[in-house]
Structures are given as C-alpha cells and as structure tokens.
Amino acid sequence: MFLSWLRSVMLVCVFVTSTGDVEARYEELGPSRGEAGGRMDNKSEVVNRLRTAFRSGITASEQFRRVQLSNLKSMIQENEEDILKALQKDLYKPKFEAVLAEVVMVINELHYAIDNIQRWMQPEYVSKTFATATDDCFVRREPLGVVLIIGTWNYPLQLLIIPMVGAIAAGNCVVIKPSEVSASVDLLIAELIPKYLSQDCYAVVSGGEEESKALLQNQFDHIFYTGSKERASSILQAASVHLTPVTFELGGKCPCLIYGTVTIEAVAKRIVWAKFFNAGQSCVAPDYVVCSKKTRDSLLPALCATLKDFYGERPQDSPDLCRIVSQRHWTRLTDLLKKTNGTIVVGGEGDHEDKYLAPTVVVVAEDDILMKNEIFGPILPILAVDTLEKAIDFVNDKEKPLALYVFSNETSIINTVMEKTTSGGFCANDGMIHITLPGLPFGGVGASGWGSYHGRWGFETFSHRRACMIRGWALEKLNGLRYPPYGENKLSWMRWSTSAKTACLLM
Ligand code: NAD
Question: Which class does domain 13-250+456-463 fall in?
Fold first, then answer.
C-alpha cells in the first residue's frame, strides 16, 4: 500500500515549456521524458490543481469554453508544419493523409463545436403533465468535472484532440495522456497545450503504461480511453475503484461484404484506399473482405491493378505509404504472414529497418490466423462465402465490429446487411468516410467500444444531463390532493393529473 502510494508520488509528469524544433527537442529529451527537463509535477497535484479550477466555476461560462476552443484551433493552425513533421517522424505519415485525417478533422470538429456550443448548452424543456403544468421542467447539461482522456498512436493528434473538444465544450477540466508509442506527437502536444490553453484547467501527462496506471489511481469524473480492448480491461479495473464512468473507443475486425452486382474497379479503389490509408493502422479500416468466389476472382486483379496505380511498382519507394509504427508491431504483422495458410496474391515483402510492410492481399479460409484477431496493418484477407446469408452469419458469429462495410449496386442487399447485422458505424459503398461527419456519432458497440463522440455526441459524453424541476407555489389546493389522509377520490385525481396523457392536453 505504502509502496504504491510512494510510486504514485515519485512518478512525475512533464510539461515541456520551452520552444524550438520538435525533432531537436525529441532527440534532446529522449524517450524517457518523465526524468528530463521541463516543469515537473506530481500526478495527483495536477489532478488537484484542475479540480480546484473546476470548483472555482471558471469553466462554466460559454465565453470561457469558446475562448479555449478558439485557442485550440489557433494551436493547430499555427503549428501545422510541426504537427506534420511529428507525424512523419512517428509513422512516416504522408502529408496528404496527415492533413486530411488529423488536421482537417480536428479543425472541422472545432468549427462545429464553436458554431453549436451556445445551442448545446441551452436547457432542454420537456413535456409536462397536468400536475406539473405550471412548473419549469428541463434537462440541464452540466460538466462532469475533471476528466481523463487516454489516446493511442495511430491518429495521435485526432484521437486526443477531438475528444478534448467535446470535453472542453461541455465545461470540464481535462487531463490528456498521449500514447508514448507516437513519441514525437506526444512531445509536441505536451509542449503546445500549456502555451495555448489555461494551465489551471488543462494538462498533458506523458508516459507509458506505468504512468497511465499511476494516473489512474487518481479519481476522475470520467475516463475516455482509445486503444486496444486488452488494456481497456485494466482501465476498467482502475475505474471501478472510484466507480468512474468510462467511454471506450476500441477496435476489432471490421468486415467488408461485397454482394450482388458491383462495378469492381470502383469497389477495388475504395477498398484499397480505406485499407491502406495509414498502412492499415486505422481502427475503422476494412479488416477483411467477404464475397462470393466469382466476385473474389474478379476483385483480385482489380486490387492488384489499383495497388500498382496508387503506390507504383515498388510501394516502398512511394511517398504515399505510411510505415508500421514500431518494430514490435512490424514483427507482429510479419509473424501473421509467416503463419497464414492463405495464398498471398500480392505483397508480403517487408523491411524491418524501415518498418515497411508491402500492401498485401491474401486469399484465406475461415479458420486462418488472419481471421482471428484485428490485423491493424496493411494485410487484407479475402474470404469466399457463397451467399449473402452465410456471410451475414459469419459476421454475426464474431464480436460486434466498430464499422461494417457493404458494397453493392442493389439497395435491397445494402438494407438486408444493415438490418441483419450490428456495428458501431455502417457505411455502404465506401470505407471509413462515415467517420468524417461530426453529425454522426463515432463509437463502437459491445466489444468494439462503449459510448460515442464527435460533434454533439462528444459534448453529450462529457455532460451530465441533470433533471431539473423548478416548482411554483400556485394551485396548492390541487397539490394538496397527494397528501394523506389518502382516499379513492384523491387517487383518481392523481391517476389523471400525473398521467402522460394529460401532457398531450397541454401541448
Ligand atoms: P497504445 O499502446 O498506444 O495504448 C493506448 C493508450 O493506453 C496509451 O496512451 C498507453 O500509454 C495507455 N496504456 C497502456 N497500457 C495501459 C494500462 N495498463 N492502463 C492504462 N493505460 C494504458 O495503443 P494500443 O492499445 O496498441 O491501441 C491499438 C488499438 O486501438 C487497436 O485495437 C485499435 O483498433 C484501437 N483503436 C481504436 C480507435 C477507436 O476510435 N475506436 C481508434 C484507434 C485505435
């Protein structure tokens, strides 16, 4: 007990305050930045500081939240070059993909929140019964308090900042914990956030698993976690100590069904783009394709041709292909290719030093190793299943996916798949695009995640919906009918006046 307390006191988080080139700073500080220069803070001190600020009521006003959101927008806009550099360093992320999936998505969310925050904060009046006709009855969105957002490495900026937008808009104080795996972005965020946002209300804590665990010993009012489901269990255990509610943005295998008539070249282009964007390291990347043998046989040459069009004869030389984030993940993926019993149709080559793995397409059977766990890399298994019904059964036998894709020219097939399956998100005739709209909730279902965010959904996730009733003093005679001594007449009156049907009379 004492040792664990001591460890949490000794572990430090770093707030890097100096300016300068990100790469140079990263080289200078090295990966164990917790022990390096900068402003040091104990984690519980950080949480306490934020809690004091929250209790002061500073985050309550729309004005304060709006200013912080605008500052966050300036932070992204003024530091775009450094952000792109850090993403290039961590993942060799092409500028095009970095701008689209990180910078633009974050800016869009910020615009959306800034434009809508006033409306979101309004009390929501609800319908009343006869007995409450003269009262004010409404739902008030209130901030939860001090919330923790833990991010992961594949979209290291977007997956931290978009939840943060919702948390700030909802009036919370926020601790963010970037992934140590994407170290350059982690460093940059730790450097920029204190420069642009209120240090009393928002903090960055850097570090890996140990730091995360130490941080989780503190009491938060909500924990928002993006990452693998294995780590989610450990977070849930920590959260259960304080009965802290959690949002989990997890992963899983996102299926991609192709049935009925399709224009195969267009399908191939959309699948290749969605699958190999970020080198397949997207939680909503199509994990595997299921289609009939006939479709498979026409799809394979179309996929090969598309890959050549997109990335050339030697994809390793293409500037448009990301790298695998770490040697550990590279080894995990190449091990899968060693163990598969499937037939590699294209790709398969890798370069350990360069963390490069070629875009790879493999024809597999149902029980292949590639069909077991989420791939999270540039390997696309294709499984032939004769009929749409059997394909739906196959999908439904697995855990509920984060996203499910269907490609077909036939509306009836799209509707059948939508109605007979479930998933966090659903997109017909494309991949991944559905997550770009702030109007649509983003999140999983079952094992792929709990809760959602983006746009208003993020604001709701970080808000408490407080049921409020402000009663007046009128009609005390009628009110008095609920008091003892009880009687049948009084009961009939109460039945009528509190019935949902009387709400209709008042409309
Ligand atoms: P990771 O290694 O970056 O870990 C995620 C975060 O958890 C990091 O900040 C890490 O420091 C922290 N962490 C590690 N161990 C911990 C522990 N024991 N307790 C608390 N925190 C801990 O990322 P990962 O886990 O490899 O994530 C990859 C997974 O994330 C994939 O399954 C992917 O599908 C999923 N993902 C989901 C989404 C989504 O929005 N649903 C987005 C991206 C990735």
Answer: alpha beta
